[in-house]
């Protein structure tokens, strides 16, 4: 019978080469670390099978097993070999790390870094976009720089509805042709722009700037809900449309606003949810189909 040290030494000698064999296929540092983790987990499982071949324990119990250190040097050799392998792997990771040599000017690199932070863009697409702007300097780069400078200087938030514009009050709030008896509540300015593109709403807007979130510390005062309540209590207003996103936070915010508007004497409605135009039932999720059945109407 082998002692504790002998058993561990046997497992180590048996699975050291497969460990390095698996690591040799890692193309990147991240893949190397993932394979290292998987290899050590496999080694732990093999050691467990040697020590406890006839027992059944949960994964949590397996992780809590502590192997006693005895006078046998097998355990010391295992630790020494593991440290040696980890040291070698660390050297490989450092060698595989890309050399961050800046082959462009600082100004161009700063432009690439800023472009990479835009939604939908990454480092590669940011470089392509920056290169396209540089190649079309007269047609794109200079006009874009001027437009961004003007927007950065003049952009402001409407004190009435919270929309983003270059004037206060915004263009929609100053439009005398808009209906003043209906207010549409949206989460972000992008939602307002989407409704305006559709041309389906001709009333006033109220942009919250987000949704209620206890985890993020966003409360009613942060979203301007008291200001919405004051606007809704105006005798001219007869209806408030809650055009919130069909998410958990969006619907929670909509329910909160509906309760806050109960004493204003206005009609509170929400956007219909269900089958989209051109959609097929076979491709819809269960929640959308259920919402469509609940909100069915006479044909």
Descriptive report:
The protein is α/β, with parallel strands linked by helices. The protein has 3 domains: 4-96, no CATH class; 106-154, RecR Domain 1 (Helicase, Ruva Protein, domain 3); 164-294, Dna Topoisomerase Vi A Subunit, Chain: A, domain 2. Helices cover 53% and strands 7% of the residues. The protein contains 12 helices and 6 strands. The strands form 2 sheets. A 4-stranded parallel sheet has the order 4-3-5-6. A two-stranded antiparallel sheet has the order 1-2. Helix 1 packs parallel to helix 4 (74-96) and helix 5 (106-116) packs across helix 6.
Mean pLDDT: 76
Strand content: 5-15%
- Report the count of strand segments: 6
Shape: extended
Most strands sheet: 4 strands, parallel
**Can you tell me the number of structural domains?**
3
How would the blueprint of this fold be written?
Layout: H1 4-23, H2 29-51, H3 59-63, H4 74-96, H5 106-116, H6 123-135, H7 137-154, E1 156-157, E2 164-165, H8 171-174, E3 182-186, H9 189-198, E4 204-207, H10 225-232, E5 239-242, H11 248-260, E6 267-270, H12 286-294
Parallel strand pairs: 3-4, 3-5, 5-6
Antiparallel strand pairs: 1-2
Helix pairs in contact: 1-2, 1-4, 5-6
């Amino acid at each position: 019978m082998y002692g504790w040290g002998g058993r561990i030494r046997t497992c180590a000698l048996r699975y050291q080469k497969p460990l390095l064999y698996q690591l040799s296929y890692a193309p990147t540092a991240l893949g190397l670390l993932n394979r290292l983790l998987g290899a050590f987990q496999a080694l732990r499982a093999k050691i467990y099978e040697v020590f406890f071949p006839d027992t059944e324990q949960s994964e949590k119990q397996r992780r809590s097993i502590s192997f006693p250190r005895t006078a046998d040097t097998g355990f010391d050799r295992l630790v020494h070999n593991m440290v040696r392998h980890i040291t070698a792997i660390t050297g490989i990771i450092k060698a595989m790390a890309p050399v961050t040599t800046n082959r462009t000017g600082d100004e161009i690199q700063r432009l690439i870094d800023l472009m990479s932070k835009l939604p939908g863009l990454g480092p590669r697409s940011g470089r392509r976009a920056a290169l396209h702007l540089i190649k079309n300097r007269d047609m794109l780069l200079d006009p874009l720089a001027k437009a961004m400078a003007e927007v950065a200087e003049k952009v402001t938030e409407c004190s009435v509805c919270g929309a983003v514009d270059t004037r206060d009050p915004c263009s929609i709030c100053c439009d005398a042709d808009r209906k003043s008896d209906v207010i549409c509540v949206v989460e972000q300015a992008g939602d307002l722009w989407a409704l305006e593109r559709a041309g389906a709403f001709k009333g006033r807007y109220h942009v919250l700037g987000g949704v209620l979130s206890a985890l993020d510390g966003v409360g009613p005062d942060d979203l301007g809900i008291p200001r919405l309540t004051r606007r809704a209590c105006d005798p001219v207003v007869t209806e408030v449309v809650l055009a919130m996103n069909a998410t958990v936070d969006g619907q929670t915010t909509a329910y909160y606003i509906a309760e806050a508007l109960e004493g204003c004497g206005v009609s509170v409605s929400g956007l219909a949810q269900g089958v989209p135009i051109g959609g097929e039932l076979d491709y819809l999720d269960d929640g959308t189909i259920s919402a469509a059945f609940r909100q069915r109407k006479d044909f």
